Amino acid sequence: MTTATSTATSTQIHLASRPSGWPTHDDFRVATVELAPLQPGEVRVANAFISVDPYVRGRMNDVRSYVAPYALGAQITGGAIGRVVASTAESLPVGTVVLHQHGWSDVVQADASTFRSVPEREGVPLSLSLHILGMTGLTAYVGLTRIAQLREGDTVFISGAAGAVGTAAGQIARLLGAKRVIGSAGSPEKVRLLTEKYGFDVALNYKDAPIREQLAAAAPEGVDVYFDNVGGDHLEAALDVMNDGGRVALCGAIAAYNTDGPVPGPDNLANIITRALTLRGFTLAAHLDLSPEFGARMTEWFAAGEIAYDETIVDGIEHTVDAFLDMMRGANTGKMLVRVGS
Amino acid sequence: MTTATSTATSTQIHLASRPSGWPTHDDFRVATVELAPLQPGEVRVANAFISVDPYVRGRMNDVRSYVAPYALGAQITGGAIGRVVASTAESLPVGTVVLHQHGWSDVVQADASTFRSVPEREGVPLSLSLHILGMTGLTAYVGLTRIAQLREGDTVFISGAAGAVGTAAGQIARLLGAKRVIGSAGSPEKVRLLTEKYGFDVALNYKDAPIREQLAAAAPEGVDVYFDNVGGDHLEAALDVMNDGGRVALCGAIAAYNTDGPVPGPDNLANIITRALTLRGFTLAAHLDLSPEFGARMTEWFAAGEIAYDETIVDGIEHTVDAFLDMMRGANTGKMLVRVGS
């Protein structure tokens, strides 16, 4: 176990400028800062894994959103998991594994109340609490159940299906009784994984042909639930094939995150009226009450070997921006993570 | 009272060709047909008023929708009200006022089961059953209550506000406790009517300046409920100002009905996610169960003098297409109706 004295500095990723369109390395700065002595009630945590997530891109813009934008010159925050290496808080002794939102740094130090302890379980990697067993899995579960009101026998389409949320959503949809699960992704390898590892009935490579044509061919009986991680042409394709009374959970619009200026929406929104569709956007913060229900079901599914996952791991805090940019470009399969330390 | 012998022919409007973009008179044909002798259980009805409605435009296209497209060479159907002039059905004796969906003709003859009798009430014009007391009022009520889940204190925006559904929606929103009601329309006269007659707090003329700018200025505290009769730039404007958890009832997209080919959608759909919005399309057929509840409340409001309305009346079955085209262009204030006979 690392000791407190060995971690008196923190290497952090700061936002140097607000990206216009695609972020570049110039928009970030790696800073190494001295950590102050621990105050009463504080803990110091050596991160093991850092999560890089699409929503982080939105917070780099100075616009109204559901979370405040990052300040210029300040550290990028987000989900991470690590181990307490120094503590003045009885609740979180040295050695405790903790989840937190302090984000992109190798060592973080803050009030104990901003960390949540995670029980260590034999054979369950720590990193899973950052995705399939954590927020990512919960996002998929909330989107399918509360937002899209998935019913047994539904046909489900999931875009960005090889991403962390997508692979979780595909499997959860199946476990909740979906009749047919269709996914889209951007490479032959991902498409193969979707059908071979994640149980999708059909997987479409959107780079092969317009997704609108591919989806129409893949869903001759229409789609009841669309879990949207992409927006843009994928939403348009889904609106073409939604069945009457269909439900769309809007979880992400990665297609629009890095465009410089607004992008027109789908040309077929009138289908929302004629087919009595419901489109509902969500972010996780308002639905954390489903966390216990999700935790109970996912623990059972996971223990029964029903849940597959992939991780794409980048080593070293100094490569966090690479990991983030690669994730935005779709270079990852499953959850993109930065591994910190050894 | 007219007698059966005086109505042995029917003048009808038939669909001659499927319009591409804006319909023209060439797409329709006026036909006068001999009526067969009444079969047992049939009634013959002399129409008093015919309703011309935006959704009719959609049925002229040969595409999948919530109702089947009109057949070429067949009569245009839709809401109408008239009086039984001949009957072999005990349930509907001569003189009974009836509502029906047989549509664009001066005289209609069919099985009695396809007509619904309407009680005549002193001082209540027959025509109101075709709009504020009928389907139009119910559409506004369903959209606000079941679809948009209007709550007391909400700020409401209604596009196409000077139309039949719009004027009903504005008044019902107020009666259900909306704090602030904003409407849009396309002429200075309509805008004045909205504030002076229909109780809108603010009315915007979308021809004066981009609706996006006007609405942002008119709704500094945002909008909780948007009742969309227009789509296009109006939906985009609303998405800009919707408050977190806001609800959009998509009732019409008249902006897109007569375009030749698809039109791009709003460029700000990502707000659906970040603000956790719900967009729900609807057509009335699935919500007729709310009819008794609406009828009870509207009767009370109407009797109390709380409900204003306007009618734009075109005389003569042969001018039905003019009325329809004028309505699509927004030439009407309130409900557009064709008056048949004297």
UniProtKB/TrEMBL annotation, chains A, B:
<dbReference type="InterPro" id="IPR011032">
    <property type="entry name" value="GroES-like_sf"/>
</dbReference>
<keyword id="KW-0560">Oxidoreductase</keyword>
<dbReference type="InterPro" id="IPR013149">
    <property type="entry name" value="ADH-like_C"/>
</dbReference>
<dbReference type="InterPro" id="IPR045010">
    <property type="entry name" value="MDR_fam"/>
</dbReference>
<dbReference type="InterPro" id="IPR020843">
    <property type="entry name" value="ER"/>
</dbReference>
<feature type="region of interest" description="Disordered">
    <location>
        <begin position="1"/>
        <end position="20"/>
    </location>
</feature>
<dbReference type="Pfam" id="PF16884">
    <property type="entry name" value="ADH_N_2"/>
</dbReference>
<protein>
    <submittedName>
        <fullName>NADP-dependent oxidoreductase</fullName>
    </submittedName>
</protein>
<dbReference type="InterPro" id="IPR036291">
    <property type="entry name" value="NAD(P)-bd_dom_sf"/>
</dbReference>
<feature type="compositionally biased region" description="Low complexity">
    <location>
        <begin position="1"/>
        <end position="11"/>
    </location>
</feature>
<dbReference type="Pfam" id="PF00107">
    <property type="entry name" value="ADH_zinc_N"/>
</dbReference>
<dbReference type="InterPro" id="IPR041694">
    <property type="entry name" value="ADH_N_2"/>
</dbReference>
<feature type="domain" description="Enoyl reductase (ER)">
    <location>
        <begin position="23"/>
        <end position="338"/>
    </location>
</feature>
